Amino acid sequence: MKVLLIINDAPYGTEKAYNAMRLAMMIQKEHADAEVRIFLLADAVTCAVPKQSTPEGYYNLERMFKSVIKKGGVVKACGTCANARGIKGINLIDGIEISTMSQLSQWTVSSDKVLTF
Predict the structure, then answer these.
(1) What is the mean pLDDT of residues 43-67?
(2) Quick one: which H or E segment has residue 78?
(3) Are strands 35-40 and 74-78 parallel, antiparallel or unpaired?
(4) Most Cβ neighbours (<10 Å): which of 13, 59, 84, 94?
(5) Residue 68 burial (CB < 10 Å; 0-12/13-18/19+)?
(6) Predicted confidence band at 58 (pLDDT cuts at 50, 70, 90)?
(7) The sheet that has 96-99: what strands, in order across it?
(8) Quick one: which of 32, 30, 89, 96 has its CA closest to 62?
(9) pLDDT tens string 22-38
(10) What domains lie within the chain, and their CATH numbers?
């Protein structure tokens, strides 16, 4: 099964990105044969910025993304959204790539499940 999670919200301030990543990690844990793909849109592209400081005991999205990627998950960030926020040319979390709406379109039609956060 192919599962696509589309995240639209900033990394911190709400828990939408956090909850999407919790679900991605649980899918990988409970359904090892599932293919997890994550696409970052709008303010969610800032989730891909490495070395964001979080208070002790607070969730850290970079660690969560690395865990999903390590287990075979694929993460892409919208290039237009990244460019609009001035992060298109900076290094992202290892394993996250800048992508296109065309890629999102392809992933959407080829996925068995599509969830948005």
Answers:
(1) 94
(2) strand 74-78
(3) parallel
(4) 59
(5) buried
(6) confident
(7) 96-99, 74-78, 35-40, 2-7, 113-116
(8) 96
(9) 999 999 999 999 999 99
(10) 2-116 (3.40.1260.10)
Q: Which two tokens stand for residue 100?
A: 């296109």
Which pLDDT value is given to residue 98? 97
Residue 38, token pair as written in the block:
């994550």
Token look-up 């696409």 returns 39
Which residue type sits at 52?
Q
CA-closest candidate to residue 62, choices 102, 94, 89, 28: 94
State pLDDT tens for residues 2-26.
999 999 999 999 999 999 999 999 9
Partner residues linked to 97 by β-bridges: 76
pLDDT at 57: 82
pLDDT at 96: 98
Return d(Cα 71, Cα 24) in angstroms, integer: 10
Q: How far apart are CA 11 and CA 68, in angstroms?
A: 16
Looking up tokens 């005991």 gives 57
